[in-house]
Please model this.
Amino acid sequence: MAEKPLSNVSLLPTQRFDRLDMGVAVAVAALILAIALVLLSGDRVGISVRRFVPQGLASSQSVVQITFDEALDPESVADKLSLSPAAEGEISVTGNQLQWQPAQALQQGQTYTVRLAEGVRAHNGRLLLEAHEWEFRVRAPQVVFMAPVDNPIQNLFMVDPNQPDAQPQQITFSEFGVLSYDITPDGSRIVYSELGDQRTAHLRLYDLRANSTLTLLECPTAACTTPAWRPDGGVVAFERSDLNLDTGAGPGAPRIWLVDTTTGIPRPLFADSQRLGYSPRWSPDGRFLASYDANVGGIVLFDFAANAERLIRTPQGEVGQFSADGRWLFFPKIIQLAGTTRYVAHFVLVDLESELMVQRDLVPESDPNNDVELAWLPDSRRLIITRRPPTITTMQGAQLHLIDLETNETTPLVTDGDYSSGQVAVSPNGEQLAFQRFALAKPGARAEIWLYDLTTGDLRLLANNATLPRWLP
Amino acid sequence: MEFSTQLSLFSTRFLGIFIEAVSFLLLGTIVSGLIEVFVRKEDIARLLPRNPFAAIVAGSFLGFLFPVCECGVVPVTRKLYQKGLPVAVGVAFLLAAPVMNPIVFASTYAAFGFGPILIGRFVITCIMAVAIGLIFSLQRNPIKMLHPRALMAMAGGSGAAAPQPSAPRLSVGQGIVRAARVATDEFFDMGRYLVMGTALAAGMQTFLSQEQIRALASDPSMSAVAMAIMAFVLSICSTTDAILALSFANFGFPSGSLLTFLTFGPMVDIKATLMYLSVFKRRVVFYMVILPLLMSLLFGIFINLNVRF
Model:
């Protein structure tokens, strides 16, 4: 058998792996080892706190909110949060947010220290590795108002009503002006409608806990106005009027829209775009939203729990306020006084707890007073009524009275024929009124904000050249 | 879900990925055509640093010169190889360019602003591309790494391939006509891989549950793995993936995992992997998948467990 010539045969074994293969193998092994070491060395960061509110000044109703970067295990937080000085409250966990709700109003002027101990656990087992501590001081309720009245561009200001020498503090700095606003029941945020160019209006949020302003909703082709907080602060209802900028047809009739304050996503209240509405008002439990629909000629009461609506017929086109207990809603009606040619306005209360929404006149039809405005006190039993007495002409001023639903007694509070009063805002504890006054006999007079103490009867000026007061709890 | 619904979903996703990617492939092939006509091998040899490390670093920054995403970068790289670009430099360019370019900088800035995600994305991508380029520089023979078709017209940048004489420069008009021809050929050549890759990506998106992958969001190590899988499966173009990453951030994915998504995805996804097969041998493509995967996981897990932004 002939042998193959040796010169054609390689004596070296075939090299199956080259330098690249070896290099990749070493790199892969090193990377796997490094990953294993990183995993073995464990979690050195843990979960972290993204946000804490309130900081600095807070209201007596403030809810403590701590936001983490991961969803929490509710069982791990029970004994980890404490306040100093101690205050009773309820802890709850929603997703990545830990919340403490005070059982009673926090003490005004007191500085509270919130301590969060390490060991709070996320759902995935990661721990909070460091303790945290924050402080906030409880301020007295403030009065917010719009000013200056003699300027087309108005902004929001805030003043401490219990400090006679306190100077109002400007809280918005709008270039084109603020149109309307509303305050959350816990006093943490103010939503306001800010005028933009081409008559647009956008919704902005001022967060008092963080002293920051952000845009809640940009309305580039519409005017978004008259915002109203749902009491839990999760949703704002507002009026949206399309400006028809593309057609030049002018602003359309307003519709009621809602915007989620967490996501910023807006939606109309009704799927039917032809449904009109204005003056949104929330019931205290956030279940109902009242608004006036001129097409159907009445107040539409939308029930979010039942996803249904009820109608209160009234041609007057005004929506009143819910009482604090949610039982009553008022609206005005115009009547002709019997045997005269005189027309006056009276208020009607609607009992929302009754099956048929029974209506009750606040005063007898024969009452010659002309009622202008109404505001509930927190006990849901008494109201502040602004009325023009029959002895003066309708061109003269409205005066403040207290009316008791149980006794039907009316007590005059601020009655001065030289002034017209209105826009009453009742303090959270129901002991003070902030309201607008206008000197009728004074040439060049401008609207002023006054403070009236229901317990002492004291009356004093709070702010000049200002309008639309509201209480910030 | 019914099959007809799934089929409809598949078509929508297929078209979504394809339409997004094909424009970038077209851009890449046009750039490739222009390189073919107006860039000579001498230009490459003159412009690249002689030091291999410096050349690889330069290669990872070439994306600022040729701003293409992962679909467009493959034909450009193939053409640069044919012009004599060293393989390791081309690998660094191929892996880095989909991120290291001004378009992706702008989109990442738009999504996350100037901060740790933007900086981390660029720094980590650069480190990964250079490191992998250095590993590939261990093998200097392109014949052992490149697909025979990619080698066909190759001029001897490495010294191992057959040298080609330099072609004379064409006039601008002639050059553009020739560039268009080359771009057309490249487009249809690479387009096959894009169609196959897109079909695979759309299929996996339709028939695999993404919810289960998202459920891993909260775990610092598994979320990085989940993000790597999502990046591979979703095959989102690097110019737009930052917006998607922002939505993942809202799902609770930690920053390290987002960086895994933002660095691994532009380097390796289903369609890009299939397109790599038109340039590299299978073994090399496997290396180009496994190395970025492990590196991005290492960075992602390390950041999740050790860094607080």
